Write a sequence for this structure.
């Protein structure tokens, strides 16, 4: 009897140690405890916006997150982190941010382009989780309604006759629209004085106030329709529905178009189930009439991509940017 009790006690101790070992292993697995106890989202979600309040990107993100909140069941807080040509805010995701899906950021092509222009401590193809593509900007070339240039040809002729005398505003020193403006001027042997702004609202205010000659970025639609601005051309493949009389740069013979999709990304290493949940919610929100109206008001074009397609786009766009910058002579600082 004594031997049986001893054996039973030994077996209980061994079984207890096995349970502790299994528990320790489970706790060590990445996200195991969180996945088991905390449905996503477990707290408010923060979206980092790399531009100041008041611009077209701000309006778009506010609209889609407002719709998405109902499905997520948690507030979505927009945190503005402008600077660095719209790169700093998004890049901050690479600085010890937990990959739990509760901190996201707006991605755009300037972030992909940045490592090709200067040394940074992150890789846009490695250090982000691509969640969903949203919309692409429609870039318009605009001047004040009382400006001397009645069309794009007159503007470019003046840029050639007076190189560097005409100020051309863009959002970010390395934005796609700044590069397109540089290309456009070079095609005619001219030059603009490129002036970077932190956001579209700031640039439009400068244009309206006479402190800027030309604005070559998106988001001017509402002001242009009021008659306060003159739209000379668009960097789109086809004329915009709201501006049917405005020619495209391509149809005027200059062969340039600009597409710069916005999307949502998170830190690297996010759980696939969380990524899928976020993509599904944002995709559903993108069909809402409120969001669709904002896209129309600010001349966005839908550019929806799932996580795999968005990552592939980023890889291909990075290669395109590298080729273009080498052609234009841009070198890393």
């Amino acid at each position: 009897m004594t031997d049986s009790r001893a054996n039973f006690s030994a077996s209980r101790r061994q079984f207890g140690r096995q349970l502790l070992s299994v528990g320790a292993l489970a706790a060590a697995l990445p996200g195991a405890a969180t996945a088991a106890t905390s449905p996503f989202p477990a707290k408010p979600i923060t979206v980092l916006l790399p531009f100041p309040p008041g611009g077209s990107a701000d309006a778009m993100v506010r609209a889609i997150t407002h719709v998405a909140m109902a499905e997520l069941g948690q507030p979505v807080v927009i945190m503005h982190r402008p600077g660095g040509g719209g790169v700093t805010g998004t890049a901050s995701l690479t600085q010890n941010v937990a990959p739990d899906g509760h901190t996201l950021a707006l991605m755009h092509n300037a972030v992909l382009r940045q490592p090709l222009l200067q040394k940074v401590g992150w890789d846009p193809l490695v250090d982000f989780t691509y969640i969903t593509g949203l919309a692409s900007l429609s870039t318009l070339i605009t001047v004040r309604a009382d400006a001397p240039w009645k069309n794009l040809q007159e503007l470019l002729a003046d840029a050639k006759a007076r190189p560097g005398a005409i100020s051309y505003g863009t959002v970010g020193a390395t934005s796609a629209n700044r590069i397109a403006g540089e290309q456009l001027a070079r095609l005619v042997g001219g030059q603009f004085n490129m002036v970077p702004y932190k956001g579209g609202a700031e640039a439009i205010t400068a244009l309206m106030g006479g402190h800027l000659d030309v604005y070559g970025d998106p988001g001017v639609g509402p002001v242009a329709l009021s008659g306060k601005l003159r739209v000379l051309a668009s960097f789109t493949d086809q004329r915009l529905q709201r501006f049917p009389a405005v020619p495209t740069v391509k149809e005027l013979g200059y062969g340039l178009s600009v597409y710069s999709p916005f999307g949502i990304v998170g830190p690297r290493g996010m759980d696939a189930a969380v990524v899928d949940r976020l993509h599904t919610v944002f995709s559903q929100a993108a069909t809402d009439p409120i969001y669709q109206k904002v896209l129309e008001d600010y001349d966005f074009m839908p550019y929806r991509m799932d996580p795999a397609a968005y990552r592939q786009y980023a890889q291909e766009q990075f290669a395109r940017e590298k080729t273009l910058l080498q052609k234009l002579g841009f070198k890393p600082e």
